[in-house]
Amino acid sequence: MIPEFTKTRCLSVRGFSLCEVVLALGMFTFVLTALLGVLPTAMMSVRDSADTAAVTHLAEGLAAELGRRGFSELREETRFFDGLGGEVAEHEAVYRADISIGPSESESLRRVSISLSKAAGGPSRTFGYVIFEQPS
After folding, report:
1. How far out from the chain centre does Cα 110 lie?
2. By the 8 A CB rule, do 102 and 84 touch?
3. Interval 87-124: pLDDT, tens
4. Least CB-packed of 13, 50, 58, 59 within 10 Å?
């Protein structure tokens, strides 16, 4: 025989059933797994966007610098940069810039191609510019 106070106490206590707890944990696990599955793709996309922005910034800076030079100072060269765009030695480099000077139809124009890539290798992005010099 169960004492009367135990019966009322058990009936007044409310909570979640085992089925509800297992179902909630299953849903939580499914959502967490889906989010963790998307995370590497999102991180790669962010990294690629940052690389594209850095490479574009480097190319624009190099083009501006080459534009300030006289035509006699333009030459093909390879330069190395860190992640912030500062010029560094080859062994410290994050980015590699290959600058090539192409043929031109005019005495006052020069075609310049700047090919930027990761110093460790990988795909490169090439930017084409035309540099103008005022005739003397």
Report:
1. 31
2. no
3. 999 999 999 999 998 887 777 888 889 999 888 887 88
4. 13
Measured between alpha carbons, how far is 68 from 61 in angstroms, rounded to an integer? Answer: 11
The residues pairing with 81 across neighbouring beta strands, listed in sequence order, are 87, 95
Is the distance from CB of 58 to CB of 99 less than 8 angstroms? Answer: no
- DSSP reduced 3-state for 133: coil
Question: DSSP letters of 58-117?
Answer: HHHHHHHHHHHS-GGG---EEEEE-TTS-B--GGG-SEEEEEEEE--SSTTEEEEEEEEE
Quote the CA–CA distance of 73 and 70 in Å, as a whole number. 5
Characterise 121 by phi-psi region: left (phi > 0), alpha (psi -120 to 50), beta (else): left
pLDDT digits (tens, 9 = 90+) for 19-71: 999 999 999 999 999 999 999 999 999 988 988 888 899 999 998 898 888 78
* Alpha carbons within 13 A on the beta-carbon side of 42: 6
Return the structure tokens found at 64: 């501006």
